[in-house]
Amino acid sequence: MRNRMIQRQIQFSLRVKRFGFTNVELLLVICIVTILIAIISPLIIYSRESSRMLQCQQNMKQLGLGLQAYQTTHGSLPPAAVWSTNELHSLALNMSTRPDLFTHANWALMLLPFIGEEQLANQMDYHQKISSKQNSPIRKATLSLMSCPEDDYSQPGNSHQFEPISGSAVEFARGNYAINGGSHNMRLTPGSTTIPTGDGAELKMDQENRVFQYWGNGVAGINIAFQPDDFVNGNSSLVVLDEVRAGIHPVDPRGVWAFGQIGGSITWAHGVNGDDYGPNNQWPRSDDILGCARLHETVGTETLTREGMPCVSYLDSNTNATARSRHTGGANVLFLDGASRFISDEIDPGLWHAIHSREAPADLFDSEHFAEQLSTENVNVEAELQNQFSDLKPSNEYPSELTNSLDMYFKLIPAGEFTMGVQDKGNHFNPPPETPAHVVTITTDYFLGSFEVTQSQYEQVMGSNPSHHLSEQSGEQKYDSYPVEQLTWYQAQDFCKRLSALPEEQAAGRTYRLPTEAEWEYACRAGSSDPFLWTVTRTEKDDSGNAAGIRPPLPVTSVGQYPPNQFGLHDMRGNVWEWCSDWFDRDYYTRSPQKNPRGPGEGYIKVVRGSDWRFTGEPCRIDYAMMPPWKSSPFVGFRVICELLQKPEAD
User: Fold this and answer.
1) Are 484 and 387 within 8 A, CB to CB?
2) Per-residue pLDDT tens for 80-117?
């Protein structure tokens, strides 16, 4: 009996074990569940991020419809903001630290009746400052349409507290969309012989009539609105709205939908020739905004860096601000045709500049491959250069100089090797890592103009003179010998073609082109790799004519008024700046070939040079030596290279 009971217990125990889990089975189940979680969790996160991204883009599209309705009603897009000139005696509103005293409506407030917010619009007193007590409910209103759900700082608990005087804070709700004020340079046009601000901001101040206007190359300005005819760039390739981030602390003024200020609801001066180019720029001194010093003191520089929200601590004005977002790897933009696109942080800075400029030619973009043009990688194809002296005889068979049918003088520049991009001696800032000094070999001699092309020479070939510095502005001196300027890169290129087509030049076997940047710098340095001794302030005894990056600026003069360099070339570091043939790419120096570099094979911005080093004394990342090929400046001209297809006859 007892044995039977024991056997039954054993059998029961075995049945229980059969229906349970072994340790191996349990571990296997845990592994499977862990793997499933690892697979599913990113999908869930991605799904949520995609949903937030979609909502963010849908908001932009709704705002785009509102902008189109506004344009239909008023014949123009709204101004970026309305700044009143009645409150302050000074008209230098762009430099004021009290925008609460003069800022009235902005583009977003003007859009309220067109985006389903008629009731809120009816509460707005457009004759009063946005900071006024009457407009308090409007500026504090949190609008879902103005917020991107991806930005966890865009919350009512993180409203912006603008406090110009202790104890008198003005509260603003956050927002994530800003109108495109432009990719121009932060400096005002027209520049000078010191710095060629060829694509800068425009400022109009009329004290007598109390007029203030401030605008760049974007779709809207301060106290100025643009009509459809102003948009040379096509609707499908011109950005109208940028995504921006809400400030990470109430002190941070960025991302404020109802405050018509740069950084708050306006992007500004975020192009390739500044230090705030592209979305989510992480350069420590990228955004120049009012109150940044206080922001550094409040949250700390490390926090701003960690959060990806850098700004300049030593400036206290709204000068430039770029697009930013909490999305991974980029930010959304809205084009004028209503299409919303996600733009990578790695977009070509030149393309970023161009799609934010209303002045960019529409044919700059290939409509069939525009999506490909917005790709994340720069083009690494080298430019092709026609007639690179392939038919020239050895240099000892040619004179050291020649003169063409227009009495243009050329010096024979010997082939050689030098270090390009050597930093000036006396300039102590660390240049960006994408601009390293590098060895370049010019393998063939070439004839370069001893002087910049003059107005007289240009007019003989082209039949017109676009220059700003004409005879009536030059006293008794004739303008004929002044350098031609105020012309685009396309016009300089056309001059080379027409000069080459002259019968006298064809008979002599001479053709003309713009120099490459490498040829230009080599000639400017007279083949030397030694650093140029530079000072920011001109000494009293300096009669060199050097002007690039040196203050005060020198006036534009007749060519050849100052001594030549060792190669016999005049005004390489002075007078007007000069177009080069190369497309501009900020990191081209990192991949430039050693022999005869010619620049990228394609691009959107052209190189301008006026000194031995591409930087001009600015102690930061601002890179002035470039300009869109469709722009002109009274301080940018050119000189040309003469190529010989046959040996010239002896004089």
Assistant:
1) no
2) 999 999 999 999 999 999 999 999 999 999 999 999 99
Q: DSSP letters along 26-70, please?
A: HHHHHHHHHHHHHHHHHHHHHHHHHHHHHHHHHHHHHHHHHHHHH
Say if strands 185-188 and 200-206 run parallel, antiparallel, or are unpaired. Answer: parallel
Q: What is the pLDDT of residue 391?
A: 43
**What pLDDT digit, counting tens, does each position of 170-223 carry?**
999 999 999 999 999 998 888 899 998 889 999 999 999 999 999 999 999 999
Distance separating alpha carbons of residues 624 and 614, to the nearest angstrom: 8
Q: Does the pLDDT value for residue 357 go beyond 70? A: yes
Least confident of 12-21, 138-147, 195-204: 12-21
Give exposure, 476-496, as e/b (b: 16+ Cβ within 10 Å).
Answer: eeebebbbbbbbbbebbbebb
Question: Token pair 């008979």 is at which residue?
Answer: 507
- Residue 394: asked if its preceding bond is cis (omega within 30°), the reply is no
> Which position has the token pair 């059969």?
18
Asked whether the predicted pLDDT for residue 386 surpasses 50, the reply is no
Q: How far apart are CA 320 and CA 307, in angstroms?
A: 19
Amino acid letter, 630? W
Q: Return the higher-pLDDT residue of 396 and 476.
A: 396
| Domain 395-644, second-level architecture | Alpha-Beta Complex (3.90)
Q: What is the pLDDT of residue 45?
A: 54
328-to-46, 50, 151, 174, 410 alpha-carbon distances in Å: 11, 11, 11, 21, 54
Name the pairing type of β-strands 606-609 and 416-420: unpaired
CA–CA gap between residue 67 and residue 226 (Å, rounded): 12
Task: State the DSSP H helix or E strand holding residue 2, giving kind and residue range, or none if neither.
Answer: helix 2-19
In whole angstroms, give the CA distance from residue 646 to residue 477: 38
Q: So where are the chain's domains? A: 52-373, 395-644
Q: How many helices (H) and strands (E) does the chain have?
A: 13, 25
Residues found in the chain = 651
- Using CA atoms in the order 180, 182, 183, 189, what is the torsion angle rounded to 10 degrees? -170
Average pLDDT over the chain, rounded to an integer:
90
Asked whether 602 and 581 are in contact (CB, 8 A), the reply is: no
Query: What is the C-alpha to C-alpha distance for residues 154 and 140, in angstroms, rounded to an integer?
Result: 13
Q: Say if residue 190 is preceded by a cis peptide, omega within 30 of 0.
A: yes
The b/e string for 165-180 (b: 16+ C-beta within 10 A; e otherwise) is eeeeebebbbbbbbbb
What integer pLDDT is reported at residue 389 of this predicted model? 41
DSSP H helices in 563-622: none
Full-model pTM:
0.89
Residues 6+ apart with CB under 8 A from 445: 389, 392, 395, 398, 412, 413, 414, 415
State whether the Cα torsion 21-22-26-28 is positive or negative. Answer: negative
Strand extents, DSSP E, 414-458: 416-420, 438-442, 446-449
Structure tokens at 483: 């350098």
Q: CA-CA distance, 175 to 56, in Å (whole number)?
A: 11
The pLDDT, as a whole number, for residue 530 is 96
Strand-strand pairing, 340-344 and 330-335 = antiparallel
Helices (H), 75-129: 107-111, 118-123
pLDDT in tens, 415-424: 999 999 999 9
First vs last C-alpha separation in the chain: 136
pLDDT in tens, 497-524: 999 999 999 999 999 999 999 999 999 9
Q: Is 100 exposed, middle or buried (0-12, 13-18, 19+ CB in 10 A)?
A: buried
Mean pLDDT of 28-45: 69
Distance of alpha carbon 429 from alpha carbon 348, whole angstroms: 25
Q: Which amino acid is at 173?
A: A
